[in-house]
Specification:
The protein is of the alpha/beta class and 218 residues long. Helix content is 47%, strand content 11%.
Length: 218
């Protein structure tokens, strides 16, 4: 069990992996979608029913780091999160492959730091959680090679940012790689990018494992 603080607002930001096909209306059956953050929210909300905590999903499918910045006021700052968790990066690679319109690793880092600086300027006590972008396998050989040669640079940037901002870093690539000898990787990340139900559960478990200590010692 992870203990949260009274009136905590836990905000998840990112792309389709976080979005999870969430609803965009007041229907509480679908407001969280069906990604890893839904699994986290379900467990932690239930374990903290007396704390008036709120879990918010603002992941949007197809988003790059620059897209997050464009909607940061509405979808982050105005929500006043006490805990902010971000998983972003894979679309910057996809857009570079398809349209040369993603952010290279240096620009990715620059914008990422702008996002965090704005959050901390409003609430220096916000607990930041940086999740590592990850990749499975693509059946298209050229695309698979492109991703595997490039994803490491984004992962290094995310880890360095986490270190510099005293944020929780949630490593995910090693998690999925460790299962390669046990199961077909497509059972965990079905298209190289998007996790299956099992993949999302693995992410949720790793998130809770990494975040627990800092969450409970704020």
């Amino acid at each position: 069990m992870i203990k949260l603080k009274e009136n905590d607002v836990i905000l998840f930001q990112g792309d389709s992996i976080t979005d999870g096909n969430r609803g965009r209306n007041s229907d509480l059956n679908h407001v969280h979608g069906h990604s890893y953050q839904y699994m986290i929210a379900a467990e932690l909300s239930t374990d903290n029913l007396d704390k008036n905590v709120e879990f918010i999903n603002r992941g949007i499918s197809g988003n790059r780091i620059s897209d997050l910045y464009g909607r940061w006021k509405e979808d982050c700052l105005n929500l006043k999160p006490t805990v902010l968790s971000i998983l972003i990066g894979v679309n910057d690679m996809i857009f570079n492959w398809e349209h040369q319109s993603g952010s290279d690793p240096d620009r990715y880092e620059k914008i990422y730091r702008l996002l965090l600086d704005e959050v901390l300027s409003e609430n220096p006590d916000t607990l930041l959680v940086i999740m590592e972008p990850f990749f499975g396998d693509k059946k298209e050989e050229d695309l698979d090679k492109f991703f595997k040669e490039g994803i490491g640079a984004y992962q290094k940037k995310a880890k360095k940012i986490a270190e510099d901002y005293n944020a929780v870093f949630v490593p995910l690539q090693d998690l999925f790689d460790s299962y390669r000898e046990k199961v077909d990787i497509y059972k965990l990340i079905w298209d190289g990018v998007h996790p299956t139900t099992i993949g999302h559960e693995l992410i949720a478990r790793r998130w809770k494992e990494c975040v627990k200590e800092k969450l409970e010692n704020r």
